[in-house]
Amino acid sequence: MAQGITPEKLISPPHQGTGxxxxxxxxxxxxxxxxxxxxxxxxxxxxxxxxxxxxVDAQKLFADxxxxxxxxKLDSDLVALENVKERISEIAHxxxxxxxxxxxxxxxxxxxxxxxxxxxxxxxxxxxxxRMGQILWxxxxxxxxxxxxxxxxxxxxxxxxxxxxxxxEVIKRAMGGVLFIDEAYNIYRxxxxxxxxxxxVEMLLEVMENDRQDLVVxxxxxxxxxxxxxxxxxxxxxxxxxxxxxxxxxAPELLDIGRxxxxxxxxxxxxxxxxxxQDYLSLRLNRxxxxxxxxVRNALDRARMRQAIRLYDSAESGxxxxxxxxxxxxxxxxxxxxxxxxxxQTSESENNTGNGLAGTNVKSRKTAGSKGKK
Amino acid sequence: MGTxxxxxxxxxxxxxxxxxxxxxxxxQYGIDNGWAVAIEYTDDPHPRNSYWDMWGMPMFDLEDAAxxxxxxxxCREAFPNQYIKVSLYNAxxxxxxxALQFIVQRPGHEPGFRLVRQEGADRQIRYTMEAYAxxxxxxxxxxx
Lengths: 374, 144
Description:
Chain A is of the alpha/beta class. Chain A contains 19 helices and seven strands. Chain A folds into three domains: 1-108, no CATH class; 111-247, P-loop containing nucleotide triphosphate hydrolases (Rossmann fold, 3-Layer(aba) Sandwich); 251-373, Helicase, Ruva Protein, domain 3.
């Protein structure tokens, strides 16, 4: 994880404080802090009137909150994405200190947490967004922690008067949690002035401004299209406090992702296979339509299919299968990918002209491969 | 002008009017039980008037009371001088009924009811009552 400041380093008041924080042991109990602040309601100007040396029981609050847990889980579950983790850790610490301040009656507007996630396909935008609900709930910022995913179809109506109720419906459903709008740029179509998306955008703007305490809006999409969306609708961009960019993964990071995916599905690479997958990734990385994590997932799904065929064939020919066979992805399962064909093809076509048709190539290698296994 | 008559009905008819925080808490209780939230309004205070107008569709898929409060606020803005109530509907088989219902807004001045005597045959008297407010046409009532 990005080396965020740990709460202990941030403030270290004496241990035997007066324990001003009256909150329950549950993070969700944010009203505990509110109750405590009532004690101080006689202060009209808390900044000046509350004595400067009033002690706050930070340790108890930090221990009660699950900030550390949340951040550690995020760190272990997501590969790379350092800037994303850093931003979430910043938000977490801000919310924590905010609660500490509120516990002694220092009121402040709750921070705006609307976010936009931009990045290439498969960089984890949706994954992080769907976790945002749980994270913000554990930090006590939102009351529920559910994520409502909406796309243009859910928000924009088909005829006059259809849009507002539709959008409002989704907004109400998301209240108390996170409203996640995937490919948000689809909502608004500049080229069609009769499009009803404009109405949705206006309603979202209003809610993002007026109902901040009830709803966190997260918008996600590809970088260039989101940039255009923000420049077409300037009000949106300024209401989003956190613009987070999701960088592309490097080959080693993708390998990590692949390993985690396999692990979750109870598979593992043989050592040859891992090397093969590494080669695969470095080739795939430079091919068109590369979609980061999603491409890794697809590649692994195909490898599983090839493994299934291989196992079927070898079982049919009389070999006994073991558990090890069932969980292991072999190098052949990966090397059969078409990505390696191009390599073959180019090297072959360099040697003998025009004979390296992709189709024949696949066929010949497949038969060769299965023969080798039997 | 008389003191008027405060209409009460529903689950908390014996209590003073609920504050917004209390309304929110009741709606949340309903949502947590899986009940649908519906908002109704009327300007006819007669106790037998069971069919109030629906404010939008009942909300079946809320997670948080904020969505319900959002609609209560909108309904109040649209009808600042009418009765508004929140109904929490239990859709469970064998129940299928309103589980909880309470008034969340009333007009500023409620003039009350008048006793109407109808002379029948053989000096028979039939009694009924009529809301003063209902003497005006629908829409003009409670317009202060």
